[in-house]
């Protein structure tokens, strides 16, 4: 329960008191990332019940998505884009990522991703099964991070949050996988296709981060979530066309 509360307070805007926690509890909080994603998705799915037009529903869902996550993952995406493509050496790229100022790569990437999400959400809301996708996508995107934490390492010398949750044990990964599969079973959803895409994106983004900065950081995990969400939204729109 303590690890779940840590996961919920880390990934959402809700100020849940967790008290002091141990490094083990912090690392094990990754197990519950997909469950937190499902809660976020459940709140997004409520927008489907509103009598508003599809474009307004999409706008409200996007606003809620950003607010619930405190734009935390968007910030990580922007930092990664600036660092990955704005420096000549891994050390210089890591320095750029730590800079509070956002560069042109980061700003452009965030704007394009938000535009993509809005257009895809507007299309998604035309289908009666939109609510299922809205629950499944945030959960699957955070499962991609679970997979990354199991197989990735942090750059040498990194002391951020990412360094404290990588090297997730295989039993912990299996527990998180079973929990995610159970969630998708309850939704009666096409589990394996969605999770397969999440895993592929996890591998690709982790490999890019390792190549550019020597490992995966907390910003890289945020970028993984955002990029996986937009890709799964695109998949949803293709399936519902």
Sum up the structure in keywords:
single chain; 241 residues; mainly alpha; 75% helix
Question: What do you see in this structure?
Answer:
With 241 residues, the chain is mostly helical. The protein has twelve helices and no strands. It has one domain. Helix 5 runs antiparallel to helix 6 and helix 8 runs antiparallel to helix 10. The longest helix is centred in the C-terminal third of the chain and has 23 residues. The protein is globular.
Q: Helices, strands, pairings?
A:
Layout: H1 2-11, H2 23-28, H3 33-45, H4 54-68, H5 72-86, H6 90-98, H7 104-124, H8 130-151, H9 161-165, H10 170-187, H11 191-213, H12 218-240
Helix pairs in contact: 3-4, 3-8, 3-10, 4-7, 5-6, 5-7, 5-11, 5-12, 7-12, 8-10, 8-11, 8-12, 11-12
Number of helices: 12
Low-confidence stretches: none
Strand elements, count: 0
Computed structural class: mainly alpha
Total domain modules: 1
**Radius of gyration of CA atoms, rounded to a whole number:** 17 Å
Strand content: under 5%
Task: Describe the structure concisely.
By secondary structure, the chain is mainly alpha-helical. 75% of the residues lie in helices and 0% in strands.
């Amino acid at each position: 329960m303590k690890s779940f509360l840590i996961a919920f307070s880390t990934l959402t805007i809700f100020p849940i008191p967790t008290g002091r926690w141990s490094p083990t509890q912090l690392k094990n909080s990754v197990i519950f990332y997909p469950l937190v994603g499902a809660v976020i998705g459940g709140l997004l799915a409520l927008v489907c019940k509103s009598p508003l037009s599809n474009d307004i529903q999409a706008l409200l869902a996007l606003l809620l998505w950003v607010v619930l996550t405190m734009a935390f993952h968007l910030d990580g995406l922007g930092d990664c884009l600036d660092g990955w493509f704005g420096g000549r050496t891994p050390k210089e790229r890591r320095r750029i990522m730590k800079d509070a100022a956002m560069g042109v790569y980061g700003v452009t990437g965030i704007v394009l991703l938000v535009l993509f999400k809005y257009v895809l959400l507007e299309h998604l809301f035309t289908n009666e099964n939109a609510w299922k996708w809205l629950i499944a996508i945030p959960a699957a995107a955070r499962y991609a991070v679970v997979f990354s934490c199991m197989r990735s390492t942090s750059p040498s010398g990194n002391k951020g949050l990412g360094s404290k949750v990588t090297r997730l044990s295989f039993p912990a990964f299996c527990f998180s996988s079973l929990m995610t599969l159970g969630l998708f079973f309850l939704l009666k959803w096409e589990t394996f296709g969605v999770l397969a895409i999440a895993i592929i994106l996890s591998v690709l983004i982790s490999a890019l981060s390792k190549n550019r900065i020597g490992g995966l950081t907390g910003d890289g995990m945020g970028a993984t979530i955002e990029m996986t969400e937009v890709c799964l939204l695109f998949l949803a729109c293709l399936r519902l066309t």
